[in-house]
Amino acid sequence: MIDADDLEDECERLAKLLRSAGYTVSLIGTVDPEAAAEVLDRAPGTLRNWRAAGYGPPYVRGSRVRYRLSDLVIWSRERHEEPMT
Asked: How confident is the model at residue 33, as a pLDDT?
């Protein structure tokens, strides 16, 4: 389990990396599926398939699908993977 301070630091690090790569990170720390795929080192289509199968990291569905950076970090750490290095 990751503690709150480490999670916040990791989310800030990922947000900075994503922004420098041209992705948009919302003020509340959410990203689109393309950025989430980059974080997880997967293809965007893989995340789409995972959503359809009920697998993968949690996501928020409004008018568009969004992923919270914190959920991506937690999900990848639970699988012993390092998010976006």
From this structure: 98
